[in-house]
Design brief:
Length: about 230
Amino acid sequence: MKILGISGSCRKDETSGTQKLVQTVLENTGMDYELVSLRGKKISGCIACLGCAADNVCKVKDDMEGLREKIVEADAYVIGAPNYYSMLNAVTHAFLERWYQFRHQEGDTLWGKLGVAVGVGGMNGMYPAANIETLLLYSFVETVATVTGQGAASCYTCGYGETCKVGVPIMMHGEGVTITPDMIPGVSKQADVIQAAVDAGKLLGKRLSEGHDRGEVTMRMQEKMMSALEESA
Ligand SMILES: Cc1cc2nc3c(=O)[nH]c(=O)nc-3n(C[C@H](O)[C@H](O)[C@H](O)COP(=O)(O)O)c2cc1C
């Protein structure tokens, strides 16, 4: 069993809360895994050219090409994204949008696989985690757990945090704030969030080692998808 981890953070690995949580989930699965950062990768959104309609292979030439085989080979996914404007950030969205290439003809390559959705925000990560779950559902991938945490908003380190009227430090601590290291949030400081990542990894590992039935998962995800579509109609 192999798990593909994706960190959609644009920030350096050591400053990224998303990367930290995705890594923590992966480490606790007890399975082989590969963690890929989308940082610096050039991945466009789907351009609806339908070049993939005949053979389920995207024809857009960018960094998604090198990721396709990893997606196909993985038994499960741990996908994390930062919260940008109360939704998942663009590169993670583009990455998941391009999974459209698997959806044609007998396009069941991803059906019934398992996933964990991770979201990190300056305030909270629930929006990107929910977005990831929705996008995975379109491939009938079951999200077995979501993990969300509060990361370090760049406003604490941009150099203007103590005076910027629209920055997080003044929003959180008021005018006249002096930024100190202890007030900068980070997922590693949130024991409950790290525990949630550990638990999510263990659950994913357990589900995989129990030899989950992809057909059964697919049916449940198809039903869930139909209910969601009916509700929104
Ligand atoms: C363009 C941009 C928009 C953002 N919008 C939000 C937002 O709407 N809500 C929020 O909670 N955090 C927002 N943030 C803060 C990030 O989610 C936060 O810094 C988070 O820690 C990033 O994840 P990372 O540490 O893995 O890079 C935004 C950051 C950027 C760069």
